[in-house]
Write a structure and sequence with these properties.
The protein is an alpha+beta fold. It contains 2 helices and 4 strands.
């Protein structure tokens, strides 16, 4: 398993309880597939560099973990489907 940084931006108009549930759901995708050393850093609501789906702000969440490709592929698939996730990105922290 490699180390990865995962960042996703949640729609700013989502209620706090729903946002918390969404973050837990997305984290569970990784942990249920063997991700370790999961560190969650919620940056909170910030200005976007450009408008995304008519939003000028978004709630940023950054994860650092060691994960398998299978877990990351599933995270990528689910994050792409969720309407409350405006954008997401997965970046490897290790050189090949």
């Amino acid at each position: 398993m490699r180390k990865y940084d995962v960042m996703y931006i949640i729609r700013p108009t989502i209620e706090a309880e729903a946002r918390k549930a969404l973050i837990e759901e997305l984290n569970a995708i990784l942990t249920s597939r063997g991700a370790t050393d999961l560190v969650v850093n919620e940056w909170g609501t910030r200005e976007l560099a450009y408008e995304i789906k008519d939003f000028k702000k978004g709630y940023y969440v950054v994860l650092t973990c060691q994960a398998s490709v299978e877990g990351l592929n599933e995270f990528d698939r689910v994050a792409g489907i969720k309407e409350d996730v405006l954008r997401h990105i997965i970046v490897s922290r290790e050189e090949k």
